[in-house]
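Researcher: I've got a protein sequence and the SMILES for flavin mononucleotide. Could you write out the 3D structure of the bound complex as structure tokens? I'd like something to compare against our soaking experiments later this week.
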Amino acid sequence: MSRPKKQLHVNLFEMACVSHIVHGMWRAPGNNRHRFGEMGYWLEVAKLAEEGLFDAVFLADVIGTYDRFGDGNAAALREGLQIPNLDPLMVVPAMAAVTQNLGFGVTFSTTYEPPFAFARRMATLDLLTGGRVGWNIVTSYLRSAARNFGLDDEIPHTQRYAIADEYLDVLYKLWEGSWDDDAVVNDAQAGIYANPDAVRPINHDGRYFRVAGPHLVSPGRQRTPVLFQATGSPDGLEFAARHAEVVFIGGQTTEAVRANIARTRERARAHGRNGDDIRFIVMAGIIADTTQSLAEKKLETYRQYYSVEGALVHAQAEIDLRRFSPDERIGDVLKREGLAFGNMGRRFRPEQTVGSALRQIASFDEGRFFVVGTPDRIADEIEHWLDVDGIDGINLRQYHTFGTARDFIDLVVPELQQRGRYRTAYTPGETLRERLFGAGRARLPAQHFGSRYRDPAGLNLPAAPLFPHETFSKAS
Ligand SMILES: Cc1cc2nc3c(=O)[nH]c(=O)nc-3n(C[C@H](O)[C@H](O)[C@H](O)COP(=O)(O)O)c2cc1C
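Model: Sure. Here is the predicted complex with flavin mononucleotide in place.
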């Protein structure tokens, strides 16, 4: 018997701001991005995503500004580039109220706010949505964010992940261990709402956090929200291997993507998990129309609005590439200016010329997971991503709101459905974790690190930090 075809998971990639990743596009006719501050905007987003049978709306977040390029915050403000930026957790209840099945992924940083209040907020969302939430775990990368929380500079990378690891430890204790499933008795006659014997403190006393508990929220259907993470570093990979259930993966070639996936699975197995306990997602750009030439025309239109300045601000580029000769190499320019190849290293190579970097930005070519064309062509490409690259799903990059999602729903979804590559209906009442991992998987699997706290005795287990503390010169 042949194996069932792998179906595509789709999240609509959002951020509660005007300009998230495709800068300048908010000016395009009919784009609704400037409406992000209206409740009605989020209701429309949610209904549209549910109409398209998407897995979730996925909200990015940052807690500082992109102030490293040019004149401080001026360019970011002009561009609406992740400022103003609303709290992503706050827009979820509005969307949940007008949907039954749609999931929600929200980004929150482990670096600046202690875990107890976040555990409560997330558990509140899980309870209220019937288990439809996921959390994108980030450790934050902006120096400006550090300065918003009383620090002079960013905490070193490895230490951020060590903090994150302990942060997760606290959360698991609260979410998985503090309340038994049958703790809520709700027996009016006996006068017992919750059974005191089934609720316990966690008494966490670690290097970074001291949290007594008990958790303030009774368990939702998932307890721990689905754990998402994007990483490119060795520390991040180790963290993902222990904690993440959905990992954003990159790679410029099929081989590189496959290697990234294989490496992550291998590390997950080293942490006692099964290789298929992780789903792999990529950020994808899809521009669809009924004919190839119409799709390419759409891309051309989008290009006209694209802001190179916005891309440079977002990349936190050390220099304004537009000021230099196109033939010069970036590495040489930086050297002459006495600057290190820092942030620009994320997108460019030192030997690359200024001209080629600018063309790369302006071309709108978004790398390996980018396709422009007819539904047929796009579906061919997606099937390749699923079967050959080995990914499980995408975060759909929005060029135009709501145009990109509308095109995907009207043109691409039916083609994928016809090929057996996309759900034709939601499974009513399933949690977000079940949508990703199958029926009966509402909660973390037993082999996941967080499950060790399910048994009350687990709360007394010795800490098992991922990173040796001696590597840090100073605790935060
Ligand atoms: C698809 C995707 C979405 C991301 N979303 C956010 C975000 O919303 N907020 C944030 O602070 N970082 C975000 N990041 C950055 C990651 O959290 C992470 O810092 C980055 O991938 C580098 O990995 P490292 O931290 O292990 O070095 C995102 C990365 C990717 C690839």
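Model: The CA atoms of residues 27 and 305 lie 7 Å apart. Residues 60-62, 107, 138-141, 230-233, 236, 248, 283, 395 surround flavin mononucleotide (CB under 6 Å).
Researcher: Great, I'll pass this along to the crystallography team.
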